[in-house]
Specification:
This protein is an alpha+beta fold. It is built from six helices and 18 strands. Strand 15 and strand 16 form a beta hairpin.
Length: 316
């Protein structure tokens, strides 16, 4: 029993320090669209090349890796093995930060012939507002930069790691297209690689409500005669049971060459679905893809709204 007292005292001390840090904190900076941010020290600025921060004059970087929450267990396990290949670990420790307690692994590594001081912080958060997020935040620098970024400064910066739900307007600005009309649809999700999911309902259950998917793709044929088969094959690969194409036709969409495919499929409980896919072709094999899916009985109601969203999409 007595052996537990030093450990408990250490944990309570770290919790107290974390609370003190959070109470005295300024506003963290988040890379655009990122759920993870911190207060960058010194001359570190938001990077335009990767999610994180950099001081290019001193070759100092902070990289932020946003991961699904369940990945944290694997990260935690790696903290006691080889968290980074080639890293010589000087210290592993529990580390208090603004949202709780994570792990901090510090050491040395050589990258392209340059010896670097490195810190790898593992953190996670789980709550109703944000969900479950895991993070790997790394700060690396050559020895020459430690005068500006000493150990104390690094640790103070990592202690400000914070989590958030990115504002919708900020996420929309990251898409490779502009959405000027929603036709009553609600933005449900903005997925990686610029995939936008819209839904017409109070919940996020795609099995219950009409929805739309908008994305940019590549690989379309430049020869117009090959585009009908490309469009049909693209839709047939959709993960909807019983999908069968009912019609297809070439058309102009917002002044550009396009192709429409209509189809039917089965939804939850084998309920009949009706769907439409539009492709608007661009240069270099690029295309804009818009899909609308609804219960078959609501097709006449939803089709004009699908089309209104399609016509309100503009390239950036």
């Amino acid at each position: 029993m007595n052996s537990l007292r030093p450990l408990c005292a250490s944990v309570f001390l770290m919790l107290g320090l974390a609370a003190f840090t959070a109470g005295a904190a300024a506003t963290p900076v988040f890379p655009p669209g990122s759920r993870i941010g911190l207060e960058p020290p010194g001359d570190l600025k938001l990077s335009k090349k990767f999610p994180g921060f950099e001081d290019s004059a001193r070759s100092v970087v902070i990289t932020i890796l946003d991961l699904p929450g369940p990945a944290y267990q694997a990260l935690e396990k790696s903290a006691f093995t080889n968290v980074v290949k080639g890293l010589t670990v000087d210290r592993r420790e529990l580390f208090p930060f603004r949202g709780g307690i994570g792990y901090l692994i510090s050491g040395h590594e050589t990258v392209k012939g340059t010896e670097l001081r490195s810190w790898y912080m593992l953190a996670n958060v789980s709550n109703r507002e944000i969900g479950h997020i895991a993070a790997l935040v790394a700060m690396r620098m050559p020895d020459s930069a430690t005068r500006v970024y000493p150990e104390m400064v690094v640790r103070a910066a990592l202690a400000t790691v914070s989590f958030r739900t990115p504002p919708l307007a900020e996420l929309l600005r990251l898409l490779p297209f502009k959405l000027s009309k929603t036709a009553g649809f609600r933005v449900m999700k903005i997925a990686p690689q610029g995939v936008l999911v819209l839904i017409d309902g109070p919940s996020d259950d795609l099995a219950k409500h009409p929805y739309m998917i908008v994305q940019i793709g590549r690989g379309a044929p430049s020869v117009p005669d090959l585009r009908p088969k490309f469009a049909r094959d693209l839709l047939i690969r959709s993960p909807l049971p019983g999908l069968a194409v009912t019609s297809g036709e070439a058309m102009r969409i917002n002044g550009g060459q396009g192709y429409e495919v209509r189809a039917q499929a089965k939804g939850a409980g084998a309920a009949p679905l009706a769907l439409v896919q539009w492709l608007r072709f661009g240069g270099g094999g690029g295309f804009l893809r818009v899909i609308g899916v609804t219960a078959k009985g609501r097709w006449d109601e939803m089709f004009p709204r699908f089309r209104a969203v399609r016509d309100g999409i503009e390239a950036r």
